[in-house]
Amino acid sequence: MKEMASLSSIVVLLFFFNIHFIQGYYYDKGTVQTITKCPGYYCGRYQVPGDNETSLWSLCGPCPRGSRVNSTWACTECTSSPTAYDWMYLCFMVVIGLLAQWYSIDTMLPNSQFSWKTFGTHFSALIETCLSACITLLIHEPLGSLQLRSCTVKHLSDWYTILHNPNPNYEEVLHCAQEAVYPLYSIVFVHYGLSVFMLFFIRPWANKALQNRGHVASRPIYAALYLYPILALIHGIMAGLIYYAFPSIIILLSLMSHAFHFASRTDQSWRALLYETVSCIHNLVVVIGHWVLHGFGLVALTLWLQPELLAVILTLVPLPTFLYIVLSRFTDPGKFHTD
Ligand SMILES: *[C@@H]1O[C@H](CO)[C@@H](O)[C@H](O)[C@H]1NC(C)=O
Ligand SMILES: *[C@@H]1O[C@H](CO)[C@@H](O)[C@H](O)[C@H]1NC(C)=O
C-alpha cells in the first residue's frame, strides 16, 4: 500500500513536472537584429533596411523568387548551375511536347507515307519548339545567355513546398511556399506558353509555304492547343515525381510505342518487318527516333556510371528492335489457333 502511494505520488509529480516544462515551439515572430531560427523547411529571413542605416532580418516567410533558405535560415540567392541530370530533365520536358505534336501530326494527316507536306509540318513543329526553348533560356537568369542559374534539387519535397507550410503551436499557418527549385519548375510553363505563341506565329507561314489548306492545316494546330495545356497541367501536379522518374518513363513509353509501331504492320514475318523498316523513310525515321529515345533514357538512368560502362550500355539501344523482328514469328496469335 505504501509502495502504491509513493508510486502514484511520483506519477503525479512527473505529470506536473511535465506540464510545467512543456513549452511551445519558440521563434522570434517579428524582425530581428541578428538572425534567429524559423519554423519549417522553407521559411527564411532576408535582409531589410532598418532605420539609422542598420539592416534588419525580416519576419519568417517565403524567400524572394530566385533565392532559397540555407541551413541558417537566411535566404541566399540561387547561384549554382543545373546538373547534367537537370538539363536532361528539361530536355525531356521539351522533347515530350515536341513528340506529342509529331504524333498528333502523324495520326491526323491523311497519308502515313512520307511526303514533303507532312515532313514540312513536322519540321515547322521542330523549329517552333527549338526557338521557344532558346528564347526561354535567353530570358532566364543570366539574361541573354543559354546558361541557367538555379537552386539545386535536394528532396522531392522541394517541388511541393506548398504542402510544407508550417503551423507552429497550431497558432497560425506560415505561408512559406516558394519555388525552391528555381527555375526548374516555372521554366517549363514558360516554354510551353512560348511554344503556343510560336505555333500561332510560325505555323500559318509554314502552312502557306506548303500550301496546306483546310483540315490538314488546322487540325495539328487544334491538337497542339489541347496538348500543351494538358502537358502543363500534368507538369504542374507531377513535376517532382516526373523529375525523379523520367528516365524510366521515357524508356517505358518508347518501348511501348516501339512495339506498337511494329505490331501495326500487316505482314509480321521477319523479312517483311526488316524490309519495310529499311525501305520506307517514315518507318526508318520512327525506328531511329526510338533508338535515340532509348539511348537518352539509358544515359539519364545510368548517369552515375563511368563513361566506359555507359558506352557498353548504349550498345543495348537497338536490342528491342532486333528482339521484336527475331521473335515476332513466335508471338503471332494465329499460331495458337491452328486446330
Ligand atoms: C537613430 O540614431 C540616432 C542618432 O544617431 C539616435 O538618437 C536614435 O535613437 C536612433 N534610433 C534608433 C531607432 O535606433
Ligand atoms: C546562409 O546565408 C547567410 C547570408 O547569406 C550566410 O551569412 C551564412 O553563412 C549562410 N549559412 C550557411 C550554412 O551557408
From TrEMBL:
One of the Pfam families matching this protein, by short name: JAMP
GO cellular component: a single term: membrane
Signal sequence region: 1-24
Keywords: Membrane, Signal, Transmembrane, Transmembrane helix
Presence of keyword Transmembrane helix: yes
TM annotation in the entry: 87-105, 117-139, 180-201, 221-238, 244-263, 284-303, 309-327
GO biological process: ERAD pathway; response to unfolded protein
Molecular function GO terms recorded: ubiquitin protein ligase binding
Xref: InterPro entries: JAMP (IPR008485)
Full protein name: EOG090X0BGA
Organism per entry: Daphnia similis
Originating gene: EOG090X0BGA
